[in-house]
Amino acid sequence: MAITSVLMLALLSLVGTFTENYTNTQRSLNSISQARSFLQFFDSELSTRLPNTPLIHEEDEDGSPSSSDKFAFIRALTDDEQATFGNLTTPDLGDLGTSLYYVEYSDDPLFAPCYNLYRRDLGPEETQQLIEDSLTTPDPAFPASTPSEGEPIIPYVLRFRASPKYRDPADGELKDWEATDTEPPSVIELEITFVDESAAQRYKTQTEWDRLATSPRDNELRFIRTFTRSIAIAK
User: Fold this and answer.
1) Reduced to 3 states, what is the DSSP secondary structure of residue 115?
2) Half-sphere exposure of residue 33, counting CA atoms within 13 Å on the CB side?
3) pLDDT in tens, the chain (235 residues)
4) Are 118 and 153 in contact (CB under 8 A)?
5) In DSSP terms, which residues pair with 97 in a beta bridge?
6) Do the beta carbons of residue 96 and residue 74 sit within 8 Å?
7) Would strands 70-76 and 151-154 be described as parallel, antiparallel, or unpaired?
8) Nearest 5°: phi and psi at 42?
9) 198 near 24, Cβ under 8 Å?
10) 114 CB-contact burial (10 Å; exposed 0-12 / middle 13-18 / buried 19+)
């Protein structure tokens, strides 16, 4: 009887370990799938960018999530999207919009506290103003945005980079692009770093997330994943 009890306890322990490992693996796969879906979506949306329009890029300052890159570009709106801006009394008419990407911290009680990658759309009126501003200022400021204005599309983000590059006609090398450069950007080097959902639950405050992003411990590195992609853009 005692031997049977020991065997049962050992079996239950093995089942519990297997279940936990399976759950953690599934969460990891879900995070990877989500990141890959985002890269494909970003690639597809960037392909609709209108050439010769402002490209706004504010670069990561210190490596913390809150100072991740901010990126915006003007694109053609679909017929369905055009109907979503404005309202019945003051319609926002036009076929151009602006896509904004930025990282902000959210402590919404309905979700786990963390940094998210947000996406926000500007309507035709704000987009037209952005185009007009770029005529006098080659490097317009990134439009002010807050978490409540955007849609969180990737949670548990540690860093987001969207670096415009141009190909130097002199040597054919890709170089960092600035809004004042005469050559238009030809490539966006996209990079996103995030934490698996299975590990993200450990971090409860913004200070903990900042520490994880800038000074991860050795035992935390296995939970951190980085995805990169180079995306060609229309000039």
Assistant:
1) strand
2) 6
3) 555 554 555 444 544 444 444 344 444 556 678 888 899 999 999 999 988 888 999 988 788 898 899 999 999 888 888 777 766 566 677 889 999 999 999 987 777 899 999 999 999 999 999 988 888 887 888 988 888 889 999 999 999 999 999 988 888 889 999 888 888 899 999 999 999 888 898 999 999 999 999 999 999 998 999 999 999 987 6
4) yes
5) 75
6) yes
7) unpaired
8) -60, -45
9) yes
10) buried
Q: Which two tokens stand for residue 13?
A: 């322990």
Q: Give, in order, the Cα–Cα distances in Å from 89 to each of 93, 128, 219.
A: 12, 20, 57
190: its two tokens: 């996209």
Q: Quote the distance between the C-alpha of residue 108 and its chain's center.
A: 18
Q: What is the identity of the amino acid at 166?
A: Y
Report residue 185 as tokens. 């950007």
Task: Give CA torsion, residues 37, 43, 181, 74, to 10 deg.
Answer: -100
Return the DSSP state at 93: -
- DSSP character at residue 182: S
Distance, in Å, from the CA atom of 143 to the CA atom of 228, rounded to the nearest integer, reads: 25
